[in-house]
# Entry
Amino acid sequence: MSTNDSATSGPMLGTTVDDVRRQNLSQVLRIAHQLGPVSRAELTRATGLNRSTIGGLVQDLHERGLVGEGDVARTKKVGRPSPRIFVTDDTVAVAVNPEVDAIDVAIVGLSGRVLHRVRYRNERIPSPAEFVNIVSALIAGMIPHAQGARVLGVGVALPGLVRATDGFVLFAPHLGWDNTAVTSLLSDATGLNVVALNDANCGAIAEAIYGSARGSGLVVYLNSGASGIGSGIVLDGRLVTGEGGHAGEFGHTLVNSHGRECRCGSRGCLETEVRRDLFLEAAGVADVTSDDMPALLAAAWGDASHPAHAELQKQVDYLGVAVRTIVNALNPRLIVLGGYLAHVLAVVGEETVKARVGGTLPGGLDDVSLVATELGDELLLIGAAERVFSPLLDDPTLVPAREPAAV
Amino acid sequence: MSTNDSATSGPMLGTTVDDVRRQNLSQVLRIAHQLGPVSRAELTRATGLNRSTIGGLVQDLHERGLVGEGDVARTKKVGRPSPRIFVTDDTVAVAVNPEVDAIDVAIVGLSGRVLHRVRYRNERIPSPAEFVNIVSALIAGMIPHAQGARVLGVGVALPGLVRATDGFVLFAPHLGWDNTAVTSLLSDATGLNVVALNDANCGAIAEAIYGSARGSGLVVYLNSGASGIGSGIVLDGRLVTGEGGHAGEFGHTLVNSHGRECRCGSRGCLETEVRRDLFLEAAGVADVTSDDMPALLAAAWGDASHPAHAELQKQVDYLGVAVRTIVNALNPRLIVLGGYLAHVLAVVGEETVKARVGGTLPGGLDDVSLVATELGDELLLIGAAERVFSPLLDDPTLVPAREPAAV
# Structure
């Protein structure tokens, strides 16, 4: 697997022996964070460091309250369970996901688990000021549940465009938000550090760490939700954000020169042509639950006389065109489909979508797999929390060691 | 500038103190390699390392024959010139670029300069076996000119698709090559290590190091040459190759659903719609030199009654559609245009192309600049050599220190 060519790299800051310690602490913490409880032997293998170095690093992380060690029988192997290093949930992030119908707020532990979650149902779509009021009150109510844990900050998974540098919300059309400093407002109201990230980028990160895209390589995530088709690119485990934080908007890839007008100002974008509501309309169905969607899609796919058959065929063609552009542009290892797209993939199959691509250069289409998301509805919250954990995972010395017991 | 989000990264090998030394040697060598002669003070500033550490690193690189130090007056500043560290050309690569009409072979020094270059004019397009015979004979003739320099290997800039893992040539349509192990044949014939890379990727690397795209960030390179439109993506100074080495084929981005059939099996790709030959055909001109192209384009652009006016207008529209897809997909800092596309850009102007984009999400189009390539016809050779230098730039300890003089 080769996704990054080492032919060149820009000047970088020099490395000191202190940096080495930080990097090694980071690597051990990230491994435990991503893989779950691991033995010291596994850490030794994964890092190439010797056993005594690993011992020192684990001790350091333990003193900072970031990891614990204990018998965790996770495998079916015979024999007594070996003690394992696990990430503690003594450090947490608050994750927030405002959507049209509800606002989800969760406490997520550094282990990646959602510890506590509440859903506020909107009577109407909240303004940025209302959002800040609601969320800061919810957080004030939830923090005591964090049981004295260290709250690192708040991560917002936002259905819109967020400026990478400062979290300024440029455009969240479905919420009707436009050029709003909602992250700094929320920070002022809560006294916590707040970061915001496009929701599809949150999903991409979460899938890349815990879901279908685990492992390195180049991964494109496409999610069809209530806010159109969001997308994110993950390269060797890191989100590609682009210059201003807007990379990965494959929902606005041209699939039909004569297609419908798109809210982006163009026409025939993937998200204007491949749509759950257009399929339902063709099927003559007002709405279906997520559970019933596969059966409806299967009925339409398998029966040429079904009223939505032609619409679904057309949508699969357009999905193929988008896959063609993605494969030619990025030659990814995986395209992860979520929401309505995952349902479509499950019914029509990967090979059918690939057959509709209509032509790519040799190689690219063989390299790629189309898969459905693995994580459930906690996806965006986990990804938003991950964004908050990121600086600590890069440099665990950001949190101090606990006071040693007095002699 | 933020192009890579640090929200997550996969497990990595641990870092040892030896690695630190290697990394720092690499950083000093890369800075001198990319920026040209630098003072010790500049190295101290750029790396954050202290003066004595820099001194030791420079000494080490000098003992390996990779850098020298001397008075190089490069600036107009008043005062005596301070001694500067420069990369020596005692280490070289052979760069090869087979094209339809000629094969270029050059000796390129580690400083990035083309030291010696020959052009073999093809009477007819060579087969892979003929190519190997010609190039190995040329190399045998040229190596003595390397004056005892260390020849690191051969880099081939190939107009086609190359598998990243082993340089196997999957498809070079203009040469009529298909599934050929030409790199290993050339390696057998010369006894040298041979690497091959898509020519547009070579151009992207060279522009990213020495040309218009110097500096970090996300850069997309699009070059319209005899072999269609090649393309490459450079992220923070590193080529994004994708899973199999085929990333960055934006020449096959859909720009017209009802466009011409493309050799890739699809239709309406950027490279089938935006073409020098279609413009010349509309203009009723058999061919023009590169020097005369700007005047012809300007005449067609400025005069609605010119026979090629409508064709050029249409091509600029399609270029805008491709820019839209690139901007939405990657939110780059720069799109670097080469060949015919650079000529079109010069005549119609960046703002005109941006105005034809037809809609992007907010942000992305403001972030991007469209610029022409800066490097001349040595671009591909420099990029191919860079690929050969890459492992040494990453780890200068790959070459031994010279024997110390006997006491």
Observations:
- The first strand of chain A starts at residue 67 and ends at 71.
- Chain A is about 40% helix and 20% strand.
- The mean pLDDT of chain A is 87.
